[in-house]
Amino acid sequence: MNSTAPSLSPADPAALVTGLAEAARLAQRQLAAMPSEARAAALHRAADALRGATANVLAANARDLAAGKANGLSAAMLDRLALDEARLSGIADAVAAVADLPDPVGEVIDSREQPNGLKLQRIRVPIGVIGIIYESRPNVTADAAALCVRAGNAALLRGGSEAVHSNRAIHAALTEGLVAGGVPAEAVQLVPSQDRACVGAMLTASGLIDMIVPRGGKSLVARVQADARVPVLAHLDGINHTYVHAAAGPAMAEAIVINAKLRRTGICGSMETLLIDSAFPQAASLVSALIDAGCEVRGDGRTQALDRRVVPAGADDWDTEYLDAIASVAIVDGLDEALAHITRHSSAHTDAIVTDDHAAAERFLSEVDSAIVMHNASSQFADGGEFGLGAEIGIATGRLHARGPVALEGLTTYKWQVRGGGQTRP
Predict the structure, then answer these.
(1) Quick check: 3 and 185 in contact, CB under 8 A?
(2) Per-residue pLDDT tens for 148-186?
(3) Rounded CA gap, 297 and 291, in Å?
(4) Contact at 8 Å (CB) between 38 and 181?
(5) Counting beta carbons within 10 angstroms of the beta carbon of residue 418, is it exposed (0 to 12), middle (13 to 18) or buried (19 or more)?
(6) In CATH, what class is 5-233+393-418?
(7) What is the mean pLDDT of residues 265-272?
(8) Could you confirm whether domain 240-381 is CATH 3.40.309.10?
(9) Can you give the residue ranges of every domain in the chain?
(10) CA distances in angstroms from 54 to 76, 83, 97, 116, 169, listed in the order given
């Protein structure tokens, strides 16, 4: 674990979180003072340590998977939880990739000189102590740690009980590498308790934790947003739409739709609703292809008429994040109706249009008010790594501070530096 946790009692969640956060704040000051090159080198050591711990991490993950199956976790949740050598190698590679990203800390955002001679600069600085509350996905342990350390932030991690053994094994390996690289152990801490009261203590730790990032299901994120007294960076749902326009190429449309829904159904970038233009000539083939690929289709009346296997959609289906091999499908009469449907039902995460009509695409990109808007691409690309940002700490759908995949830049704030020569204000 870390050097602070053994002296703190998990029996008192509030005191435990306070102690961890206080230690994190001290460590963050040391971390922020480290040269960028030193933080990068420490992350490479952490990636190497994680690769060296493959057997331990996979053994721990096997325990979590066995418990998850016994407890009736869904296939989507088990997929999020599961690790193998390839996935773990990818997690380690992502840590190394973050190490090699340009450091945003110290970047001069803008500068100016006032008529009175004052020289002003606005520069990027770390946010401070970031609390990450997450479920199921053990990769978040590594991604969050790497991003926070690279941007000079301390991380306080609280993973879900489903991945408790995996998280502990990954954290232990990362800590070994980071400490060997000169990073204080308390800069990345894993809360050593699964007591739900620890989440509540984190959410109310104003003055100790500077920002909370929830990664998990709707109930977790809703609780965080409702109870937090600390700023929150989050999205509640990933109700993502793909609109197949009348001028879409049939082959491209089918490839994108199948990938957007079924590549990985349990990720937040998965398509949940397909809108098909009534003038698209291959609508029946598109719906059939989706069903033939193993997806349950819940459709409106016109969609049901295309294939007898379509299940009638209920009113709630248009507002449901399935995270499963299920899609709601509606036939719409043109771009205006598609835009209206998305406005009513989108969660402002990711929405896409498939079309060869440039004007329609540009209008869609301009008028859809989501964090990510795509043209002729699968919504499964809604990922910081795919955006060239390295690992991401989450997708933000709000309108303040950061939006879309949140990586290094999103984990910084700024301050003003003012240099004068004795000026006084009249």
Answers:
(1) yes
(2) 999 999 999 999 999 999 999 999 999 999 999 999 999
(3) 7
(4) yes
(5) exposed
(6) alpha beta
(7) 92
(8) yes
(9) 5-233+393-418, 240-381
(10) 23, 10, 18, 60, 9
